[in-house]
Amino acid sequence: MKPARSSAGLPREVRLIGGEWKRSKLPVADRPGLRPTPDRVRETLFNWLGQDLSGWRCLDAFAGSGALGFEAASRGAASVVLLERDPQLARALQAVRERLKAEQVRIECSDALNWMARSAPAAFDLVFVDPPFDAGLSLPALAAARRVVAGGGFVYLEAGAPLSAEAATSAGVSVYRQGRAGAVHFHLLRIDGG
Q1: Could you tell me the sign of the dihedral formed by the alpha carbons of 193, 181, 72, 115, in that order?
Q2: What is the C-alpha to C-alpha distance for residues 189 and 156, in angstroms, rounded to an integer?
Q3: pLDDT, tens only, 110-126
Q4: Counting runs of H as helices and runs of E as strands, what totals does the chain give?
């Protein structure tokens, strides 16, 4: 059975695809710019990372539905911070956290760029960066994420266009893997110095 779709054609729910909470449903609100990472893309990403993220410290910087952050927690991440500036979406994420009894997940209602600017450097092993495509936030968010990821860690970037080699180099990251699914360009970037 296919998930119900909103008037904009996007699903109203997504399912976690692996780990402890496999097949658990996450609601997707009908909000401007909210575009959950497609199942196929998440499956590819977690194949690249390895199925077991035991001990990893993760940050989902533009959480939205929380699909990336909850997927990481489902696969054993030790701690996951989900940032969402929309109070309604942050409350929905908190409800999912409580339903799943996801003690390792923390929800913060905050602007991702400001939060990362205040965060301790090298505090995470993996940061998910999936801002609204039309907001012009990909490169500023990549720079902010780079600061909070430990050397050898990863930044996952989802964007409406591919990341250029020049932009990756200037951000201090190297492209580890990349792909495309429809209008979604996705990149797993390795932080230099690991």
Answers
A1: positive
A2: 6
A3: 999 999 999 999 999 99
A4: 6, 9
Question: What is the architecture, at CATH level 2, of domain 13-191?
Answer: 3-Layer(aba) Sandwich (3.40)
Domain spans of the chain?
13-191
Among 35, 46, 29, 12, residue whose Cα is nearest residue 158: 35
pTM, full prediction: 0.89
108 sits in which H/E element: strand 105-108
Alpha-carbon radius of gyration of the chain: 15
Residue with tokens 């409350």: 91
What is the 3-state composition of the chain as percent helix, strand, coil, each rounded to the nearest 5? 30, 30, 40
* Pairing outcome for strands 25-27 and 173-181: unpaired
